[in-house]
């Protein structure tokens, strides 16, 4: 029986909330680099390394939860994933030393890696094809809203209750599992194309290795774009521009508002002008704002630069859930988009360490700006040379897939 509009709304909401809360749990650390370095008596670089460890473990989560999603459905793996990453985040607030904290952040990476692929496939398979672009933007904007909520927590929770409470708040997403259990219906597209065995899933994915490699390359450059412009930016504002930490929190809130607007607007635009053209337009917007983003001569200039910059960055990202799911074979839609996404982050995992190291010979501003100018130019080329399947039906099997 086809999903009703209410069922579709619940599926998209579950995916959006899962990604929002997952992103929140990751980004709380961005605001605690100095605090945790002092708490655990390690260098700031050691705390930055825990971010790298989280990012590096995400492909494992994509494999585990993606295989489960293609074999057993989207709902139950999504519930298990949400509970897992929420409990690990909660335990981070009890870490007695750096070693335990590093282990927990590494385990958290498994949960973070599993959420996107399962949630995105559930949302895109449940959404009407004509609304896929804008709903893609809404789902992906959960990443920016999670960052925004982390900034709010840094402004109000951290000064009052301390750093441990930041992670304790991150345990609350486990409650989302109840919503998924009682409100979200299983994907009809998954039921129609369900693989008989795990081996069949792996075989199907292997038969489409060319498009998979392209998606990995695309996601690697997209990860350079997002993490290269977001993760260290609060530290840049404080360290290089002398901005008050409380003001930094407000700036992060501001530029994430821009990110949400960009994701939704460019996602909607992609239904009219296509996925690739919309991504290139968003990337051009980000490119032209780099001077204001890093070299702005005043706080106002930096704020405007960051706002518009992230509108472009997340504008390109807002198209990704729809684009990747449309390019992926039906039987492996839970595995392939999420695994490509997370392998991209594995390759891009050292980005924070690279940019942080470049600040010494180049200066913090030039390290951020130079890296992203080169990355955006390459990314636009890869997007332009790729393909797209906007509006692909998820209900009917593609003839090219039947030949595999």
The CATH superfamily is known as: MFS general substrate transporter like domains
- How many individual helices? 21
Radius of gyration: 20 Å
CATH class descriptor name: Mainly Alpha
Return the average pLDDT rounded to an integer.
87
Ranges where pLDDT stays below 50 over 5 or more residues in a row are: 399-404
Number of domains: 1
Distance between the termini: 28 Å
Number of strands: 0
What name is given to the CATH topology? Answer: Growth Hormone, Chain: A
SSE topology string: HHHHHHHHHHHHHHHHHHHHH
Portion in helices:
over 70%
The SS-based structural class is mainly alpha
Strand content: under 5%
How is this structure best described in words?
- This protein is mainly α and 404 residues long.
- The protein has one domain (5-390): MFS general substrate transporter like domains (Growth Hormone, Chain: A).
- It has 21 helices and no strands.
- It has helices spanning 5-27, 33-40, 44-72, 75-92, 98-126, 132-161, 163-169, 176-183, 188-193, 198-207, 209-230, 233-239, 245-273, 275-288, 290-295, 299-317, 320-327, 336-348, 351-362, 364-385, 399-402.
- Helix 3 (44-72) runs antiparallel to helix 19, helix 6 (132-161) runs antiparallel to helix 7 (163-169) and helix 13 packs parallel to helix 16 (299-317).
- The two termini are 28 Å apart.
